[in-house]
Amino acid sequence: MATQTAMGIREIEPREAADWVRSGRAVLVDVREPDEYAAERIEGATLVPLSRFEFARLPSALEAPVVFHCRSGRRSLEAAARASGGGWSGVYNLKGGIEAWKGAGLPVIRTRAPISIMRQVQIVVGAGVLAGSVLAWLVSPWFLLLTGFFGAGLLFAGSTGMCGMAAVLGAMPWNRALRPGGASCAGGSCGA
């Protein structure tokens, strides 16, 4: 049975959502990022990442209710609110997201996927700062410029929302499968 949130969005339990999707009474939309979707997804769900959410990208079968889901339900609640604000009526949020779906014993598709782009960025930046610090201590203080470079990159990414390193890492061969339709990582936003 669907319940209503304080925001006025209807939430649906995983088992009921599964019945709706299985019978064709609803369309399931995954609003997580491509790397999350590549690693684990609900069969039949359409990927429309919240970071690039546009009404035009939603499935065409919108006569049926749309059930949004993410990992835990927070991002999908935001997507459902945006869709409701856009005038759509048959909008639901999967209560508890894919985690609740799995907790209810419902199946998911798991694939071996690379770690997320943002975790890759964190690994590279952490390694660069550590290497710069160790080299500055052991070899020359000039290696502190390396730590400054990574710090400036983080400052730029945080203040502009564009991460050049995410764009570079997103173009690497092991990450190409994460971009649906071979989309580019222009602006450093490829799933980051």
Strand content: 5-15%
User: Which whole number gives the mean pLDDT?
Assistant: 84
Unreliable spans are: 181-192
Number of helices: 7
Give me the secondary-structure category: alpha/beta
Global shape: elongated
Order of helices and strands: EEHEHEEEHEHEHHH
Strands ordered across the widest β-sheet: 1-2-7-6-3-5
Rg value: 20 Å
Do you know the CATH architecture of the largest domain?
3-Layer(aba) Sandwich
- Estimate nothing, just give the exact number of structural domains: 2
Which topology of the largest domain does CATH recognise? Answer: Oxidized Rhodanese, domain 1
**Gap from first CA to last CA:** 35 Å
Number of strands: 8
Helix content: 40-55%
* Biggest β-sheet strands, sense, barrel: 6 strands, mixed
The CATH class name of the largest domain reads Alpha Beta
CATH superfamily of the largest domain: Rhodanese-like domain
Describe the protein in words:
Helices cover 42% and strands 12% of the residues. With 192 residues, the chain is of the alpha/beta class. It has 2 domains: 3-110, Oxidized Rhodanese, domain 1 (3-Layer(aba) Sandwich), CATH 3.40.250; 117-188, no CATH class. Strand 6 (66-69), helix 3 and strand 7 (91-94) form a beta-alpha-beta unit. Helix 5 (117-138) packs antiparallel against helix 6 (144-160). The model is unreliable at 181-192 (pLDDT under 50).
Summarize this structure as a short list of keywords or feature phrases.
7 helices, two-stranded antiparallel sheet, disordered C terminus, 2 domains, Oxidized Rhodanese, domain 1, 6-stranded mixed β-sheet, alpha/beta, 192 residues, single chain
